[in-house]
Write a structure and sequence with these properties.
The structure is a homodimer of 748-residue chains. In chain A, helix 3 packs across helix 4, helix 4 packs parallel to helix 6 and helix 5 packs across helix 6. In chain A, 33% of the residues lie in helices and 24% in strands. Among the domains of chain A are: 30 residues; 352 residues, Beta-galactosidase, Chain A, domain 5. The first copy, chain A, is an alpha+beta fold and 748 residues long. In chain A, the strands form 6 sheets. Chain A has an 8-stranded antiparallel beta sheet, with no helix packed on it. In chain A, strands 6-11-18-17-14-13 form a 6-stranded antiparallel beta sheet, with no helix packed on it. Chain A has a 5-stranded antiparallel beta sheet with strand order 1-2-3-4-5, with no helix packed on it. Chains A and B meet through strand 12 and strand 14 of A and strand 12 and strand 14 of B.
Chain lengths: 748, 748
């Protein structure tokens, strides 16, 4: 007996020693795969296959997709098209399939995938070694496989992963061939040969950096890795040069992956171009982050800048509506959502390398797929183990700027209503001139819209899928947004140089009291001599069916101006309490700065007191109540004038126009209320709950608005226009009545 | 033992005798309830409660609703408002609650419901006996509780059921009081006092007939029952008088419930006003039908006119899109669907009194409620017993006219595409002037829309919820529809008198070959001297992603005319192969007949050959290919001109205009293709699959169109313009090639 026990013990020791050895081996940084998949991760995954539904399903889908492509055969066409065209789409499809096939080889241990990757890479090698610049000339930085270096970089970010997966499958000779003729020249083209693309702080460059860095990590090439992290050594850029979008290429000389983390992300994780481009940039940030974490753990990339990469994921998820669609701040195409691939990456990486937030699992469940790597495995296991919790989006204030000192975005949420208040900085070349603008959502539906961009991404028929000229002439202009335009001119004269040197400042943000949430910001210099202070409150009151918005826009100017204040509603005019006359023929509202794109559908004169406008959309009712003077104009407009190729949507707005004014305050309330059923043909709560909005006080120090409901109850909202700290004590007298409170605002 | 057995036998006989007696009793027509609920039905229901989920849930919801109303207390306001106003809504709510409370009393045997019904009826009695005409004067037949007799009739149809349910609960004295002061004068007001409403063939009158008949059945009043079935005895109407909508009140002297079945329903069950009004009329037809079936089974009402009442339910269900929304032919508000209450009635009654079609159970399941009566019980049991089958909508041709000889509606369905071709007769006062028009749907989404009506039913802010004047000036006009308008004048000069004396005729309908389905119809006299023949085919071909539409509209005229041929698409212009110029200022297309409501957004000249237009909507792509001449105009329009109260939607169209032509043929193909994902930002199959459409022959006898696909394959569609029988043999030679076939068309 004892002999047998000893024998077993010895055996056990031998086995465990072998395991230890293997573990040591697979942690070795020269072992492949090491970049995203790791040798140990592959072992874990293989051991759990068949028991982790969301992972198994993701794997199955990828397998079906790749198998279908393998059956179709390899096609490496000579590059010739813009986005949306065949050669563009084909090479794009190839990069995805290469990456996926590489993963399948590792997880399924089936040589056919390695062979497929190898064959395709060899064909790329054959073509690339003599490939000239892409024939299309529109880009400021032309690629070779694609019309712009950006897409070449996309390719390399994915293909690096494929190469890593089959690295050990290739002979040294094969590797040398690929590295010499394909990967190194490829990395050089998008970096050294294209510094105007590579050597800057911009989402394009982030892709470039990640591409160079990831292939560098696979090839164990310290030069490339350094070039990725810190930019091209010794390269000085022309500080005045601009790119296609009008943005400076490199005004302050910063470059490289770390600078690209440093600059565009605020400490809260807000990305200065806005969520649409953050979503796009997310993939290279995180996938290269994960690669660095795996291969260069000593860099502690996920702790860099106080952990901003992971924070940015939380910020981005909060910049989406109830359906997960990102708010289209700046250039953003509507419909982009957290269902996009890069957000699968983001959610999985955030779960694995962050604090395993169980709310993320609910998003992963909705996404219904996971990464086929260690992080996806972690998420799949979390879900399998029943850890899923709802992801709770709350009101949040996200500062903008590298130090969080350049304005921000405030989101107020209550029940189904989401108010998005943008007081951010210019947002780089993708920024719009819309300081202190807002948009309003209800349960994922736009009530007051931000136009988004003027582009049909990858729809070839519309300008090759690229930015349309109306993006500049319309979408970026101030009048295209829900904020004030002075004298028919955009903020900062619509000039990037001025815009990027200025920004609004937070006045205060308060979401402690769920029933009265407020965000307030001020900005100078949008117009010389004019200061704006906008305070927006989301108020839940017993006399109202749903939370409503109170909007106070104070304008102080030392000159007489015309102010236009639009509300881009959706749907059909239902009712107004003011007279208006529709136009017999429709003429543009103006000649430039976006005004040339608006038709005047109707004009009216406001009434002294409360001008009310209600509308109807998707079987729901809405009312805008605005404090107006008799001389104010109310103009119904529709987008679409001077639009020779039907590039713009025919969306309506109501513009409140106040002429010949110095200081003025726009005060409005916005209500969503009631519903209509076309099946029962019954309307419920189709009218406003506000009997009267009234200014009780409007001074440099305080603005006080009373709101009397239809039921006859009156509440008072006072905002402090100067002292706004949580601790500040205020005592004022309005109409003989004393009010005292602590904090920036009062509501009762 | 034997003694005991005998004893048991005797007992059994006694019990069975008692049961027999009870059954006899409860079939007695003087037993209440007898109208919709029956005494025996109530017994059955009570015995099954708690075991029939959909019924139990429906009951629970009704109970919660009624209990909440009982808690609120009874309110019988003095009538003063139009639809959408408080008193209107309140009395409407009362009729529903009364009916439901009556049912609850029967099923739950709880006196509180009987008491509630009694109390409310007594209050109505108190008010009604001195109530003058409703103060609002807009109706051609004013009611007392409501502004129009129609709504008073609605009230009585429901309240008769409530009265029946508590009949036995009331004392004779109470019944006398109610019948003398409320029910009989109420029935008289809507009939004898309002013959212009009652004594006609119209959906309004059907409600009136049913109201009078149902209270007559409850009260066992043969006079009222006869008046319901056959109209007011001896009443002669002015044959030239018209109602508010411009329809004749009673041109041919017919009246009463049976005439209302006889006239508007075709033998196929198509209702001449269209599905929206059929849905509305359905309730009184079927509920009074059910009542007659229960109380006067000798009438065999469900076998009347070859069982047309039950056939009409099948027709109506087939007149809905994939979501169950009815096609908005004539005046129809979009969004009305088979989820509406009257369709719950229709589906349940059809199941119970028809042939227990298990497909109906799937609709009942979607409706998620059943009637709380014998028919609802039957459906609930059917579902419980697992009999549910999908309701398969197929291509269907529905004849119009009392004898099925006045045109019709043809619906072609293949995969997700539904083509609705309207060649129906005028459709009574709710008809539109759109002979040979069409609309196109894909999986419940409108691709080419019919505008529907210009009305916001029960939305008080829009003209009291009633028809807007734009219904006449726009929605009814020919140019508002997808058919040909000659010389900017509507069909039949837009005159009801002419329209109602003419109608198109079916040329042929063929759906035997699922891959090539065709409907063809001709009409004379829409314009004097002009004949139209339109042939529309829904073709599934291997070179196309989805079934596409081939449209051949032949116009023969003895004068030179201008023809306008619009396509009311949705969404955004993507691409054209013809040049166009957008308008700097938008002007109306014309001055009258609907043209005054169209803005010209852009104009272009067609090219000789195929003019192609593609558009983009809800992330899908569409292409129209039209055979054009160089002199044809292509005009992009948008609805909304001369619309002083924003009553019209701002929807676009492309109008093909052909000037100075006598005979001409419009030939077009419509494709739905591809998709776009804003999440992956990728476009799939965004271009047309048609390389060329070509006329190979166009004679009085035949039109032959060749369709060459992008893949280079050519098919030929030949339609016979004269002989169209299934048996007809054809032999022709086109371009030297011989074609022989049997039947109306050829496709290969």
């Amino acid at each position: 007996m004892i002999k047998i026990q000893i024998l077993l013990l010895v055996l056990l020791i031998i086995i465990s020693c072998n395991q230890k050895k293997e573990i040591t081996n697979i942690n070795d940084n020269n072992q492949h795969p090491k970049l995203i998949l790791t040798a140990r991760g592959v072992q874990d995954i293989r051991s759990k296959l068949g028991t982790i539904p969301i992972f198994d399903n993701s794997l199955q889908k990828v397998k079906e997709e790749v198998d279908a492509e393998i059956d179709l055969g390899i096609d490496i066409p000579i590059p010739k098209d813009y986005s949306g065209g065949y050669t563009h789409s084909r090479h794009k499809q190839n990069w995805f399939i290469l990456q996926k096939a590489g993963v399948l080889y590792q997880i399924l241990d089936d040589e056919k995938y390695a062979k497929y990757v190898k064959n395709m890479l060899m064909k790329y090698e054959e073509m690339y070694k003599t490939l000239p610049l892409h024939p299309k000339t529109r880009s400021y930085a032309r690629g070779k496989l694609f019309w712009q270096c950006l897409n070449d970089s996309n390719w390399l970010v994915y293909v690096s992963q494929a190469y890593d997966c089959i690295y050990n499958y290739l002979t040294e000779e094969e590797r040398n061939k690929l590295e010499t003729n394909l990967f190194r020249p490829f990395a050089d083209h998008i970096s050294i040969d294209s510094p105007q693309f590579y050597q800057r702080v911009h989402n394009h460059s982030t892709w470039g950096n990640a591409a160079v860095g990831m292939i560098g990590l696979v090839m164990d090439d310290e030069d490339l890795i350094k070039r990725a992290l810190y930019g091209i050594e010794g390269k000085e850029m022309d500080k005045t040069a601009k790119d296609d979008d009008g943005g400076f290429i490199n005004k302050d000389g910063k470059a490289g992956f770390l600078a690209n983390i440093e600059e565009p992300f605020s400490p809260d994780g807000y990305y200065n171009e806005g969520p649409y481009y953050q979503r796009y940039a997310m993939y290279p940030f995180l996938i290269f982050g994960e690669a660095l974490h795996n291969v260069k753990p000593e860099l502690k990339i996920f702790e860099y800048k106080d952990g901003v990469l992971l924070k940015s994921i939380n910020a981005l998820l909060n910049l989406s509506d109830a359906d997960g669609d990102f708010f289209p701040l700046n250039d953003g195409q509507k419909g982009m959502s957290y269902y996009t691939g890069s957000l699968v990456t983001a959610v999985d990486i955030s779960y694995k390398y962050g604090n395993a937030d169980s709310g993320l699992l609910s998003i992963a469940k909705k996404q219904n797929r996971v990464l086929l790597d260690d992080s996806g495995l972690a998420v799949a296991l979390g879900i399998k183990e029943g850890k899923t919790q709802p992801f709770q989006k709350k009101s949040i204030n996200l500062s903008d700027g590298p130090n969080g000192k350049q304005g921000g975005v405030g989101i107020l949420r209550n029940e189904d209503i989401e108010l998005v208040f943008k007081y951010a900085s210019q947002g780089s070349s993708h920024g719009h001139y819309d300081k202190l603008s807002f948009s309003l959502y209800e349960n994922g539906e736009e009530l007051i819209q931000d136009y988004g961009l003027a582009r049909f991404v990858n729809i070839e028929q519309k300008g090759g899928g690229n930015y349309l000229k109306e993006n500049k002439t319309w979408a970026k202009q101030t009048i295209a947004h829900n904020t004030v335009t002075q004298n028919e001119t955009s903020h900062y004269q619509g000039k990037y140089e001025i815009g990027s040197q200025n920004h609004p400042d937070l006045h205060y943000f308060s979401s402690e009291d769920e029933n009265v949430q407020v965000v307030s910001s001020k900005v100078a210099n949008t117009y010389k001599g004019t200061d704006l202070l906008r305070t927006m409150a989301l108020i839940k009151d017993k006399d109202f069916e749903k939370p409503f918005v109170l909007d106070i826009m104070r304008v102080e100017s030392n000159t007489f101006n015309q102010y236009d204040f639009p509300f881009y509603f959706f749907g059909q005019v239902l009712d107004t309490n003011f007279e208006y006359k529709t136009s017999e023929i429709l003429k543009p509202l103006g000649k430039k700065n976006g005004y040339q794109h608006l038709f005047i559908e109707a004009s009216g004169k406001a009434i002294a007191g409360n001008s009310k406008f209600s509308w109807f959309n998707n079987n729901k009712f809405y009312t805008l109540t605005s404090l107006t003077n008799k001389i104010d104009d109310l103009i119904f407009t529709r987008i679409g004038a001077n639009d020779p190729e039907f590039n713009l949507r025919r969306d309506p707005a109501l513009i409140l126009r106040r002429k010949d004014s110095k200081n003025t305050t726009f005060i409005s309330a916005l209500e969503s209320h009631g519903s209509y059923s076309p099946v029962t043909e019954s309307a419920f709560n189709s009218k406003s709950s506000i009997r009267e909005l009234k200014v009780e006080l409007d001074s440099q120090e305080y603005t006080a608005i009373s709101i009397t409901s239809i039921k006859g109850n009156t509440t008072l909202f006072i905002t402090s226009n100067k002292k706004a700290s949580k601790e500040a004590k205020h005592t004022i007298t309005i109409n003989g009545k004393h009010y005292s409170w602590t904090g920036a605002y009062y509501y009762k």
